Amino acid sequence: MSFSAASRRSLLAAAAILLVTQPAFFQPAEAAESSRIVALGGTVTEILYAIGAGDRIAAVDSTSTYPKEAADKPDVGYVRQISPEGVLSQKPDLIVAESGAGPADAIEILKTSGVNFISIPSPPETASIPDKIRAVGAAIGESDKAEALATDVAGKLKALEEKVAAQTGPKKKVLFALSLANGRIMAAGANSSADAMIRLAGGENAVSSISGYKPLTDEAVIAAAPDVVLVMSGGAMHLTAEQAFALPALAASPAGQTGAFLTMDGLFLLGLGPRATEAAAELHAKLYPESTKP
């Protein structure tokens, strides 16, 4: 059975968002203008389009699901399983990759290929989004456009943070469930993009005592007592409400008792890119629907 490039990207996009903490942002030297860019990572692609460089993209990876125009670009594969031959066959003059692209030996081949290769740090922190935008802009010689976008995003982040800080009442405890395997939920703890977005949206991560993405025991699920279960919509790792609440430990939780189950697009929710404030505002409205009433 064959799939279109867009379908493959939708199926794989979810898995690309398992971001890990990275060193502090660097600013690459301002690059000469590139006409054939290979973008590795959905957020890198999104930023490139947002600063008007979409026509300079020669190819993208399979997690690049936004904007829709990215589906028209050649697909070089999943960002964590890149084939250097596939990337180099596109004859790029610049490769811009999110940190975490791999495997390591493939990335080493690309770095020593003679093609300019720039890695963009992707720490799981909303405060780092403007610098991520600036880094992509500097990589392609578009610092002015990137700075305008970064400044706009920084202003929106501040405004949303102030709105959330002013909210009253208890915070909703949110369990982000990445997937289900062998009867255990793979959940997002601290130092994850899901944790960052839950907090930006005014929620509380129900499992902030763990770090990164880890499977939960039944005892851990019971102790977490989430008010809401949050998952990514669509894709290969999509988890349904029926699957989640079929687990006795989760069915007995406050979320299970009320059927509180939310789904959002993976790249939109977890990409930590230019649309992060929109995603967090949407999540906030879903968590606190009473706050949207006139």
Explain how this protein is built.
The chain has helices at residues 5-13, 42-50, 84-88, 104-111, 129-139, 143-165, 193-200, 218-224, 241-245, 248-251, 254-258, 266-270, 276-287, and strands at 37-40, 57-60, 94-98, 116-120, 173-181, 184-188, 204-205, 213-215, 228-233, 261-265. It has 294 residues and is an alpha/beta fold. Helix 5 (129-139) runs antiparallel to helix 6 (143-165) and helix 6 (143-165) runs parallel beside helix 13 (276-287).
Reconstruct the topology from this structure:
Layout (H helix, E strand, L loop, with lengths): L4 H9 L23 E4 L1 H9 L6 E4 L23 H5 L5 E5 L5 H8 L4 E5 L8 H11 L3 H23 L7 E9 L2 E5 L4 H8 L3 E2 L7 E3 L2 H7 L3 E6 L7 H5 L2 H4 L2 H5 L2 E5 H5 L5 H12 L7
Parallel strand pairs: 1-2, 1-3, 3-4, 5-7, 5-9, 9-10
Antiparallel strand pairs: 5-6, 6-8
Helix pairs in contact: 5-6, 6-13
